[in-house]
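Hey all, sorry for the wall of text incoming. These are the two entities for the joint prediction.
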Amino acid sequence: MSSTTPEAAAFEGAIQFVRDHAAGEAQAQLLVAALAGRPDRDPGVGDTKYRRFVRIPLAVAAAVCGDASRAQPLTVALALLHTGLDTLDDLMDGDVRPWWQEYRSAEVLLAGATLVSALPQLLIAELDAPPSTLALMQRTLAQAGMVISAGQQRDVAGAGRDDLTVADVEASVSAKSGEVHGLAAKLAAQLSGAGEAVATHYYEVGQAIGTAAQLVSDCFDIFAAPDSRDLRQGTRTLPVVLALTAMTGDERAAFQTLLHEAEAEAGARTAVRQRLLEADIVRNAAVTIEIYCRRAYAALANAGASDPAKSVLEQIIRDCSLLEEA
Amino acid sequence: MSDRAMEMAMELFRSNADFQRIVRDSDDKGATVNRILGQYARFVPGEKFVGAAEDGLEPEEQAKINGLPWASEDNAQLIARIGDKGCDYA
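and here's what came out:
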């Protein structure tokens, strides 16, 4: 394998796993179409192709058993799962990705479902670990699937709604991105031989990091991206809901109208973003994100991690904080 | 202060060693905690803080509050950091 980063290794491994296990060439082609080009095609991954769902399990394995490579096969399963979830998310959001141009939506749905519900389970079944550990990991994966599904359901139901609370938004983000990263951390801990209490602490570390990172990403969409995809899609992310929460009466009604106009008009999106800046929403969002970073630090301390793995995980947390320098 | 604001303020408070020490060294620990939590709650999203806790801080408490990043950093700094950190979608 010629990979230069753990992320590249994870996706190369995922493509190879698909080729080794596909029930025919047509299925292999469909599934590889979902995986090919990652992580390079992922937005914002930088020169190192940094992906938390790969780095977290490696660091957790290093913390638990002193050997990061113990979790390397697991990063392949997580690459398959993450790609499947992304594929289904795009489909539900109506985002047509360039790599799916030659496929029908039914085929895209099939790819997403297969990546989520068959391949990660198959890979875990083939890991080098005692049967009791593998059974535990399969259970952890299935439980996380239920949480992620409920989070997605909440997300879909929330589009365009103006009565969401900040707690609703946090619950949705926590159940989706938070759960994916909590799952990554917990599976790595279990595979590395951690007991239930320690594995749960690492789950909490991953879940808090995943939630914080997604909230930062949502802030990027509103405050830093050239245009807001979330406003275009009517997705009510943290900055918007924080603003709505602080408004009443005519002010709130006018902002709701502007939000609905923003789904179709670039000028309205610019106006929404300006309102959010004027309302000091960025500071409120930074504090909310900081809560999750503090939870991650606390859970890491409870897990009893020691250096150097502890420092790696602390750096991953720091990367999510808007109140700490990188 | 709402339950949510109190919960969030407590989480931030617990992670600050300076405030932990100020409380430990104070004569009236309960009052000190309340003063500091009141200040934290000013920065909790969705809370419009009103109340006596904004006044009456001891000089050291005031200095620490003023030094908190969420109290002292301006929007431009925060947005620059979002630009640096935020585009790696989770």
